[in-house]
Design a protein that fits this description.
By secondary structure, the protein is of the alpha+beta class. The chain has 2 helices and 9 strands.
Length: 169
């Protein structure tokens, strides 16, 4: 009987250890910027400004121009593609994206104060290419100046990409 109880205890401990190992998130060692600039997306509705990760995953993403200079024009989609490296490769890492808008900020007419930043959090798989884009869909979104895109994992900034949005005639 003691042997049966001991085996049951060992089996319970193994299940707990296996469950906690399966629940772990990936550790990001580095991020590689694949490309950046202005993109074209086929099959995506971008009327939300930030293009949702699920929509980008379903879209055909094409780099139109590798540039840091972005025209302030309705329909322009800009940002960067990146790949996360880390372990384990079959897990997702929790990622926070922050975009800082140039002063005086983005003046959304539905809000009392201008927005100075946009924050988006998601879990992304290690080892595959991901896309972070912003789409100009409304006039008030097109704030000229330097836009700073930052990517964080575990409160540590792992990437930064800057773009200069230029007013067009």
């Amino acid at each position: 009987m003691k042997a049966l109880a001991k085996n049951a205890l060992l089996l319970s401990l193994l299940l707990v250890v296996a469950a906690s190992a399966d629940a772990q998130t990936a550790k990001v060692d580095k991020i590689t910027i694949v490309d950046f600039g202005i993109y074209h997306l086929n099959g995506v509705n971008t009327d939300k400004g930030f293009v949702p990760v699920a929509d980008v995953r379903r879209a055909q993403v094409s780099l139109l121009s590798q540039t840091h200079d972005i025209p302030a024009k309705i329909g322009t989609k800009f940002g960067f593609r990146f790949q996360l490296s880390g372990t384990p490769t079959d897990k997702e890492a929790h990622i926070k994206h922050i975009v800082f808008y140039p002063p005086p900020g983005m003046k959304d007419p539905s809000l009392p104060q201008p927005r100075t930043q946009g924050v988006y959090e998601t879990d992304l798989m290690i080892g595959i290419t991901h896309t972070r884009l912003f789409s100009f869909d409304k006039d008030w979104e097109m704030v000229p100046g330097v836009w700073t895109f930052q990517v964080f994992n575990d409160d540590k900034m792992i990437a930064e990409q800057k773009f200069t949005v230029v007013a067009t005639q």
